[in-house]
Amino acid sequence: MSTTVEPILSARNLTKRYGRVVAIDNADFDLYPGEILAVIGDNGAGKSTMIKALTGAVQPDGGDIRLDGKPLHLSNPQEARDAGIETVYQQLALSPALSIADNMFLGRELRRKDMLGKVLRMLDKRTMRGIAREKLNELGLMTIQNIDQAVETLSGGQRQGVAVARAAAFGSRVLMLDEPTAALGVKESRKVLDLILNVRARGLPIVLISHNMPHVFEIADRIHIHRLGRRLCVVDPKSISMSDAVALMTGAMDPGSLRAAA
């Protein structure tokens, strides 16, 4: 990545302690416009805590987070969403009994603009259905025909698609994806990967947290390797092998032996 391009989301010297346990140890992070940045690391490396700090779910004990070069202080996930940072967690956080349209606008419901909306607080279901359909179509989710069907009737891949579409619809700056293909089969994983590439093609930068190395190497522009609570290095997937990436994650290889990505 060119040094003349400023990161859209960055962090410096992030720290987080739980008693004597240091979860994040002066960690750095950089996400550049229009890229897919994969974040990988062994279990317990601290990558999840770092991502939670970047999305308001955890408050770091120290360090600096910046969005578009400006200091960003997040007290909770809602403040991250208000800043344009959307996260799709592995659990999806969808309500199975509600419709696709209702899930798309869960917590963001639109009220009617007439007196029924202002006085009786009635929801504008027609507008929400239209926007939900539009967002699904934009991302190529044409197999979902009925926007009013319950999410519990969808396949795993379709549910993941709805979650990603919801995040992409409201995430104006950054999209974070936590293990988006972990519980999916080969065919549905392929659809989700295509969906991620489609989101990136629309200009939204993506952070992909994943243990699936083939997926990481297929779609990531850069790979952030996290080890022992901090960023070990950032590498170019085109200039490193999967085995070398695993060796870096586990400490079997020193990053000095590789040419790190800028």
Automatic annotation (TrEMBL):
Residues 9-253 form the ABC transporter domain. One of its GO terms (molecular function) is ATP hydrolysis activity. Keywords: ATP-binding, Nucleotide-binding. The keyword Nucleotide-binding applies. Pfam families: ABC_tran. PROSITE patterns: ABC_TRANSPORTER_2 (PS50893). The keyword Nucleotide-binding applies. It comes from the Bacteria. SMART domains: AAA. SUPFAM superfamilies: P-loop containing nucleoside triphosphate hydrolases. This is Sugar ABC transporter ATPase. It comes from Aureimonas frigidaquae.
